[in-house]
Design a protein that fits this description.
This protein is of the alpha+beta class. It has one domain. It is about 35% helix and about 35% strand. The strands form two sheets. Strands 5-6-4-1-7 form a five-stranded antiparallel sheet. Strands 2-3 form a two-stranded antiparallel sheet. Helix 1 crosses helix 2. The longest helix has about 30 residues. It is flat, with a radius of gyration of 19 Å.
Length: about 130
Amino acid sequence: MTTRVAIVVSSSERGPSYRDNVDEEGRAIFDTSPDHVVYTLIGVNCTAEEFTDWFRVTDIDRCFIVGGETSNQLFDLGGGDIQLTVGMRLEVTFESYFDALIEEKIEYANRSIENMIRRAKVTQGL
């Protein structure tokens, strides 16, 4: 069975505060995002981007946001079941990815049908 594996290599707490980053004029950049932790990943048997492609689909509770310049970061806004730590090994099997992908497509189709029904009712004055 195909499995994609990544390791958490760093974490950084972020939130509404001044960061060490500055813009082109040397002014501090204010971070207006909510408190969160950014985890950086490296792929073991795939790229970090390939891993996060599968991880995003299997993160059913949507506790993590995939981001970063090369999609190698997970943003944790809190409330997730998975507590990541530096050095932690993450695995996603093809079976869990495919099952979650099918479920995601079914939910999307159901929402689309509900929207079409709603629009048809409005058009018909129901």
